[in-house]
Amino acid sequence: MANSKRVLFQKRRMRVRNKLRKVNAGRVRLSVHRSNxxxxxxxxxxxxxxxxxxxxxxxxxxxxxxxxxxxAAAKVGAAIAERAKAAGVEAAYFDxxxxxxxxxxxxxxxxxxxxxxxx
Length: 119
Hints:
Strand order of the largest sheet: 3-2-1-4
Order of helices and strands: HEEEHEH
Low-confidence stretches: none
GO molecular function: 5S rRNA binding; structural constituent of ribosome
Organism: Tropicibacter naphthalenivorans
CATH topology: Nucleotidyltransferase, domain 5
Largest sheet: 4 strands, mixed
Radius of gyration: 14 Å
Protein name: Large ribosomal subunit protein uL18
Distance between the termini: 39 Å
GO cellular component, one term: cytosolic large ribosomal subunit
């Protein structure tokens, strides 16, 4: 029986997350979720089990509501870098989930790096 796309996505997501947990213990996780319409990102402290900061294309303050393109992802990346500084986070590890590191996900990561967040 062939695996569905969702099952393969979940396997890829857990493989990425488990590898990152082994290598980057103690650092904050920058978790990305991309849907067909939006992209969102969260800074998560796994030790405390709390979200420290978040940004999304659903926020009217970013001016990208309803847009799902590379430019919108870059604005979200810049916003999360700014909010990370406000929360006192300087370094995080990038959890791309099951998404490939290109296009919108790469643009978000690059913008966060340019904003001063060490990934």
